[in-house]
Amino acid sequence: MREVAIVAFGQSDHVRDSAETSEVEMLMPVLHEVLDRTGLAARDIGFTCSGSSDYLAGRAFSFTMALDGVGAWPPISESHVETDGAWALYEAWVKLLTGEAETALVYAYGKSSPGDVREVLTRQLDPYYVAPLWPDSVALAALQAQALIDAGLTDERALAGIAARSRAAAESNPHAQLRGAVPPGEHLVAPLRTGDCPPIGDGAAAVVLAAGDTARRLTERPAWIRGLDHRIEAHSLGVRDLTDSPSTRLAAERAGAFQLPHGLKGMGGAPMVDTAELHAPFTSQEVVLRRALKLDAPDSTVRINPSGGPLAANPIMAAGLIRLGEAAARIHRGESDRALAHATSGPCLQQNLVAVLEGE
After folding, report:
1. Angle, to 10 degrees, between the axis of helix 156-169 and the axis of helix 283-292?
2. pTM of the prediction?
3. How far is C-alpha 344 from the chain's CA centre?
């Protein structure tokens, strides 16, 4: 199979409200950053793919306006996914695997500040049986957290520990929205407290992908995508076990997370990685993901969300792409040799994507 790597990653500073900045103004510095890192010009990019949501923007085809930041003339090969940018990266990866392009620019952005995110995300739900009840995203996450507590898999103190660890890790992340000690706070929707929930904020991210020797030419240490897969749970929450994520487990298996490097068969144990960037917007969801990915062993040495993760910055529609970018950046810097990156979309970890990245 053709080798494809992430060769550059950039992101904006994530802020609570970017009312004075348009999507294009938010994107352009990030796009320039990743292109400058590779020495590429916009005309050198073989394929461009973006991820965003018109629901957040409140207007149809809002993503076409963001193309002004890329430069769509002369005409370029371009596509868009109405979901997190991690799925845009998946489309670009397939494009490069098939040989239709040598390089790809993937970007994503989200401005959550203009509206009520908890209300907007109800539009993801079953339109006949669930959405008319208007259960918001925090209430659904609280149901999942309570199911974990009832099953004896976690408690409020353990959840607070996850939040504290994540935001302490974010101290070294200059782009994070929340850093350092953040009090657990009052119950927002029991058993979740404000500290168990992600910040509402605006931000953007971009990566450049390249194939084979082109990747080696563009960066000293490419982050090779050794495997990438995504799966989905049943749409109806009532037929799912909210304490488990079979789709994450299956995506990880298909991506090769439980194999030794270079495809050698492992023993079916924990992933053979040193870093895991998990897209767990709520502390309780990290518990689910760690169990599904076999990262919950007491003696595990895998660093989980060393960037601070989505508890430190969670720009909707970009946070999943950021997980892949953060994992790749650690490989670029020589701080990781093999990393796992995860992205999710939908309520209670409904859709899940897993990638395995390696250095040379």
Report:
1. 90
2. 0.96
3. 7
| 303 exposure class (CB count in 10 Å sphere: 0-12, 13-18, 19+) | middle
User: In a structure prediction context, what are the per-residue pLDDT tens digits for the chain, which is 360 residues long?
Assistant: 899 999 999 999 999 999 888 888 999 999 999 999 999 998 999 999 999 998 887 777 778 888 888 887 788 899 999 999 999 999 999 999 999 999 999 999 999 888 899 989 998 899 998 999 999 999 999 999 999 999 999 999 999 999 999 999 999 999 999 998 888 899 999 999 999 999 999 999 999 999 999 999 999 999 999 999 999 999 899 999 999 999 999 999 999 999 876 555 544 577 889 999 999 999 999 999 999 999 998 888 999 999 999 999 999 999 999 999 999 999 999 999 999 999 999 999 999 999 999 998
Residues 209, 47: Cα–Cα separation, whole Å: 10
